[in-house]
Amino acid sequence: MKYSFRRTQAKHHVDVRQEKAQGKIQSVSQESALDAVSSRGIGGLIRLSTYAQPHVLGFALIVVLAIIFNVTGTLQPYLVKVAIDDDLSLSHPNVHGLAVICCVYIVTVIVGVAANYTQVVVLQYIGQSIIRSIRLNLFQHITRQALRFFDKTAIGRLVTTVSNDTENINQFFTQFFLSTASNALSIIMIVFAMYELNGRVATYSMVVVPIVFAISFIFRKRMRRAYQVTRTRLSRVIVFLAENLAGIRIIQLFRQEKRQAGEFERLNSSHRDANVFEYGTMVSFNRVLELLANLSVAAMIFVGGDAVLHHVIKFGTLYAFISYIKNFFAPINAITQQWNTLLSALVSAERIGNVFRLEPAIQDPPEPIDVASFDINARIEFCNVFFAYEEAQPVLQGINFTIEPGMFVGFVGATGAGKSSVMSLLMRFYDASTGQILIGGRDVRDFRQVDLHSLIGLVQQDVYIFSGSIADNIRLFRPDISDKQVVDAAVTVGAHRFIDRLPNGYNTKVYAKGTNLSMGERQLIAFARIVAFNPRVLILDEATANLDSQTEEWVQAGLQAVAKSRTTLVIAHRLSTIRNADTIFVMDKGRIVEQGNHEELLSRGEYYATLHANSGVSSVHTL
Ligand SMILES: Nc1ncnc2c1ncn2[C@@H]1O[C@H](COP(=O)(O)OP(=O)(O)OP(=O)(O)O)[C@@H](O)[C@H]1O
């Protein structure tokens, strides 16, 4: 394919301008809290360096190895100089001296290679250990966040932080740290060696230093900008990919593949252009430095050659100078190439810091109830509860009810009436704006979240199945739930029938999200999970999908089995599910508008009776 860097460069500039105009490249003030980056600050990196503290000895070893590597590298041209000036230039060349220098040279090469190898391996180990700890802490911190956080945050954004941003920190410790320390040392040693050989010629050589600085200064700004644009565009590609893969069914159902592929292509092309521009800028910088290095060598051949002819320096010294000048540019080039590594580490450290700074919106109380010594009778009370996800959009408006231990109650109402929100508050996924929610007479905010969630089991409409075996999915990877308990739970809810027929029974592998199981089978596994975990309260958000009559019968029987001996709250989409409920709460626009058992509500002839009349022909949701 014919490729034009200039064209890409021009396109890149146009894209950047357009994106700025459209506000896609956001200023810090416009970005979300998670993306806010103060590009110059090194605070984030300093805070993350606490993860490097346990490896101080390892870093010390790396510094020693870097010194050894550089000393051997600097010695080599000097050894050649000694061989030329002291052994070869004599009227009778000193063959024994040459042999000694040859041996010493080989030793320096072997020692240098060994030091470099050990240095890289140790550094990789340290870098990977650091990111392992950061990733683990990030994962734990993210999973502690309240649901409200996940409502508003793109999952792709979090995936990028845990995968890419931590990798950038690794590169900082492994590449930037090693390269900068080692190359800086190399420059110092080369300058030292040059002045040792001949101060005047060394001073002439230093003329290039300000030129190198000027070139670096000019390119630095361009490289930084190019780098930031590339990262922003890569982040967009990842977020787009994550969201589209998560919603792939919908995309396929609505035949949006082509449109989404077009959008993905646009994002990818824009990332490619930014990347090509970034590399183009970097390569131009490298080539300019290389040109300067070669011009310096040419100048040295002329100036140094003249000095040799006038016996100011020896030929071997000229050889050493030429080698040192070439070697002088290599570390400068390497250091400037690390500029991007530093930049990305700075940005990533800030982004990681932004995640760590998030305070979970739902916090455990300082002195939680000791559930082990508290006999919870599982009475549930809502006392004048008001709630809104967004201010000014009330979702629950003065909810009051009491559910006695062991009761089976149903919640019905049109879509958006607030049924699921009631359950979310009971599970303390969110906190009520005002009012109180009590379990066994104790406020839900007085429990540790982990205790509350072991008291209340939740089966949602869309049962989540993890990749693993059926048994793993019933015990949810908890090793203390034995195989017998798993089978007993499945038998209790009637899931054993279908599991037993599978080729590998309880060890049958299921795909992530349970795509190789039917809706009813997933429901039964979710019921078995509840029995295995044995919570005191069960919340069931009944599946809306139509099950065949046989599976529906099994699911109903399963539900009766789990509901036995525990308080059960069912959000019913089919009124048949709650026909026998002790009480039914009928909700409308965030309020409980009716309450009673099936017969009482029917005889009243109001909202529930209308729902019932319509439920024969259509779903409750259509009201
Ligand atoms: N995470 C959320 N963020 C913002 N608003 C939400 C959120 N979840 C629900 N809502 C809004 O709160 C209101 C009540 O929703 P809720 O899910 O509790 O209703 P529901 O009765 O359970 O409906 P359905 O039967 O369709 O599940 C709706 O207007 C909905 O748009």
From TrEMBL:
Domain ABC transmembrane type-1: 60-344
Domain ABC transporter: start-end pairs: 380-614
Membrane topology: Multi-pass membrane protein
InterPro entries named among the record's database cross-references: AAA+_ATPase (IPR003593), ABC1_TM_dom (IPR011527), ABC1_TM_sf (IPR036640), ABC_transporter-like_ATP-bd (IPR003439), P-loop_NTPase (IPR027417), Type_1_exporter (IPR039421)
Localization in the cell: Cell membrane
Domain of life: Bacteria
Pfam family, one: ABC_tran
Keywords on record: ATP-binding, Membrane, Nucleotide-binding, Transmembrane, Transmembrane helix
Cross-referenced SUPFAM superfamilies: ABC transporter transmembrane region (SSF90123), P-loop containing nucleoside triphosphate hydrolases (SSF52540)
TM spans (from-to): 56-78, 98-126, 176-195, 201-219, 291-313
Molecular functions (GO terms): ATP binding
Protein name (Swiss-Prot/TrEMBL): ABC transporter ATP-binding protein
Top-level taxonomy: Bacteria, Bacillati, Bacillota, Bacilli, Bacillales
